Amino acid sequence: MATQLDKTNLLNAYRTMKQIREFEERVHVEFATGDIPGFVHLYAGEEAVATGVCMHLNQRDKIASTHRGHGHCIAKGVDIDAMMAEIYGKRTGSCGGKGGSMHIADISKGMMGANGIVGAGPPLICGAALAAKFKGDQGVGVAFFGDGASNQGTTFESLNLSMVWKLPVLFGAENNGYAESTGVKFNVPTANISDRAAGFGMPGITVDGNDFFAVYEAAGEAIKRARAGGGPTLLECKTNRFFGHFEGDAMTYRAKGEVKDLRERCDALKIFSTQVTSRGLLSQEEMTTIDSEVKAAIDKAVALAKAAPNPTAADLLTDVYIAY
Q1: Is the pLDDT of residue 320 over 90?
Q2: How many Å is the Cα radius of gyration of the chain?
Q3: Which class is domain 2-317?
Q4: What is the pTM of this model?
Q5: Is residue 103 within 8 Å of residue 137, measured between CB atoms?
Q6: Of 282, 225, 249, 206, nearest in space to 14 by CA
């Protein structure tokens, strides 16, 4: 398990998870000032999923995200300065300030975009995986989606199509327990979302999405099989979100003290820290150093975003069409 990763990779894993957490905690604070336009959906609490999956990916691999896309961006290597500027709607953003939080993307990094349409990612990633299969470059596509999107027809159609065409895809179901405000027990009749994989003839696996090593191991096996031509896998990661469905959500559908309890018992960063320090793989001092470096990087990203120029009227006419 942990011994599969050397010290450098373990430090990188912690840094990525910490960047996601610090980024989201800071956006939570900044959004409350009213300076960030549009809607924001935070990924805090689910860091182990994006990190554990994306550590197996390279530049040619593609991911399709959800409306909760910041963590996927960071895990896939999108620049945090450009991300923060995009969330602020600035010209220096990764999409020129035109996408904002819900449509943040960076095609150069293989991040095909966050998406406000529930269940939109799986069909997109089937297209990317089909292209990789035709090119024969061993590229893999990963579609992240939530428990709510697991009920969408687009997701079922994508699971079916990926098996018919034997596409190199990993379907990553991030089951955080709530489809907006609806508990998973009210809208998913099976014990696990991964149980549905059997209906399409593909492997289905459920892991603890708060355990980086569990996600890393399961995702690694699925991605290796996909690269070798073995077809798709449905990987369900049971995890939690620490904030509301969107910023401003009063979360009246959650039990009193639920989030506080989750932060104490199910925090992916705390679990990782305990695992690596108890095995002597990393020291607390090494992780504390990363904490300081990440905080400074996020402070810098916010300062740059606030100082960056807004898009101009002329920018409305750019990035509309592409010539092949």
Answers
A1: no
A2: 19
A3: alpha beta
A4: 0.96
A5: no
A6: 282
